[in-house]
Amino acid sequence: MESLSGNLCHSRRQREKLFDFLRLFLLFGSPVVLSLILFLILVVIYNLRPFILGRGFTQTTCYVRGSEILNVTASCSAGTDLFQPCAQINVEYPTGGGFTTRGVLLENEQAMVNCNPCSYTFGKYGLYHQ
């Protein structure tokens, strides 16, 4: 009879240790997991935001306000040929509601033929707001 009650106490102690471990994990682990999930959501939003904004953009008239040839060597992405120069084109375009926005287009012939962005846009595809 004593060994049976000893086993019950041992199993109860094991169960309490498991509950303590789970309680500690919920206390300390869940904030870490939640912050990682929030971080991933923010990264996805940051990367998709230009595409979400551009999805409703159908057409507009772009007014060239000046251009400049940048005599630097760059490439469109890792592993592609280097090119020189890159043309920086300053534009102004209406965004609706009577507002206009200024932007910078950075392109060159190789970028337009072989890849979408010029390297100066760092993957944001050509149009940067000033």
Task: Write a concise keyword list for the protein shown above.
alpha+beta, 4-stranded antiparallel β-sheet, 2 helices, disordered C terminus, ion transport, ion channel, membrane, transmembrane helix
Q: Mind sketching the topology for me?
A:
Elements: H1 2-55, E1 63-70, E2 74-75, E3 82-83, E4 86-96, E5 99-107, H2 109-114, E6 127-129
Antiparallel strand pairs: 1-4, 2-3, 4-5, 5-6
Subcellular location: Membrane
Membrane topology: Multi-pass membrane protein
GO molecular function, one term: potassium channel regulator activity
Account of the protein in words:
With 130 residues, the protein is α+β, with helices and mostly antiparallel strands. The protein has two domains: 1-58; 63-129, no CATH class. 46% of the residues lie in helices and 27% in strands. Strands 1-4-5-6 form a four-stranded antiparallel sheet. Strands 2-3 form a two-stranded antiparallel sheet. Strand 2 and strand 3 form a beta hairpin. The radius of gyration is 29 Å and the shape is elongated. The chain starts with a helix and ends with a strand. The model is unreliable at 112-130 (pLDDT under 50).
How many extended strands? 6
For the residues shown, what is the average pLDDT? 71
Order of helices and strands: HEEEEEHE
- How far apart the termini lie comes to 83 Å
Quickly give the structural class. Answer: alpha+beta
* Shape annotation: elongated
Radius of gyration: 29 Å
GO molecular function: calcium-activated potassium channel activity; potassium channel regulator activity
Subcellular location: Membrane
Transmembrane segments: 21-46
Keywords: Glycoprotein, Ion channel, Ion transport, Membrane, Transmembrane, Transmembrane helix, Transport
